[in-house]
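Go through this pair.

…
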Amino acid sequence: MVDYKTLGSRIRAVRLEKKMTQEQLAEAVGVGVTHISHIETGNSIPSLQVMLDIINALGCSADELFCMEIDQARPLMNSWLSELVADCSNMEIKLITDMVLSLKSSLRRLRLDDPT
């Protein structure tokens, strides 16, 4: 099942990376600003055509937006994680690593992880 809140969040993140306003994206896609806002907050489910128009307007790939929904997107997620920590200090990297290891251990104990 698609997590539209996460999808909207990714759309917003990519839009901001491209230094686009909601108004600019709405104009490029041919929808209202309110619709873009609702998509970004997960309060509206975009049609396939609107998603294609958003992807083209943002100049990104579908897997960049749907990375949490597509099983084969693991390399993209790994790259994204690397980008997230690229500007961190050594101490920050160590703390983030410790937190990820603790979280992973907790998830495995609770059997909430997907073994694939």
Observations:
- DSSP finds seven helices and no strands in the chain.
